Amino acid sequence: MNIYVASDHAGFIKKNELVDLLSKNYNVIDLGPSELNPEDDYPVYAQRVGNAVAQDPGSFGALVCHSAEGMSIAANKIDGIRAALVWNKHIAFETRQDNDSNVLALPSAELSIDEMREITQVFLKTEFSGLDRHKRRIEEIKDIEEEQ
């Protein structure tokens, strides 16, 4: 399983730490940035991860920025991406089980690297429930994407 990871300047340090931790157990592809640039813009990195996940079925993405709100908004503009802003293990579990989310957005200002690691582990290990009501809702989301 591939995990595509990126951040903006506000998440740069924790993104690098998360990449190091995840690389021990997963195939992690770091999509940037490769160096700290206080002037970078998060939509560029959200798009990189979103496109990579959309083109690689079965893969996941992780985005790290200050609040993770903008990252999740930008990633969700890409067809097939269901990015979730996650701040604890319970939400990580729920968004995978119920929404089959494929991109995790982590707020670096609110979480320690240990919390990020735990949340990411729950996210990656939780399977989609496949319940009919959840499948139906995901299909409704896809219908919205197609209407745009």
Characterization of the model:
By secondary structure, the protein is an alpha/beta fold. The protein has a single domain (2-147), classed as Ribose 5-phosphate Isomerase B, Chain: A (3-Layer(aba) Sandwich). The protein has helices at residues 12-22, 42-55, 69-75, 89-99, 113-125, 132-147; strands at residues 2-7, 27-30, 60-65, 83-85, 103-107. Strands 2-1-3-5-4 form a five-stranded parallel beta sheet, with helices on both faces. Helix 2 packs across helix 3 and helix 4 (89-99) runs parallel beside helix 5 (113-125). The radius of gyration is 14 Å and the shape is globular.
The CATH superfamily appears as Sugar-phosphate isomerase, RpiB/LacA/LacB
Radius of gyration: 14 Å
Helicity, as a percent range: 40-55%
The class by helix and strand makeup works out as: alpha/beta
CATH class: Alpha Beta
A few lines on this structure:
By secondary structure, the protein is α/β, with parallel strands linked by helices. 49% of the residues lie in helices and 16% in strands. The chain has a single domain (2-147), classed as Ribose 5-phosphate Isomerase B, Chain: A, CATH 3.40.1400.10.
How is the secondary structure organized here?
Elements: E1 2-7, H1 12-22, E2 27-30, H2 42-55, E3 60-65, H3 69-75, E4 83-85, H4 89-99, E5 103-107, H5 113-125, H6 132-147
Parallel strand pairs: 1-2, 1-3, 3-5, 4-5
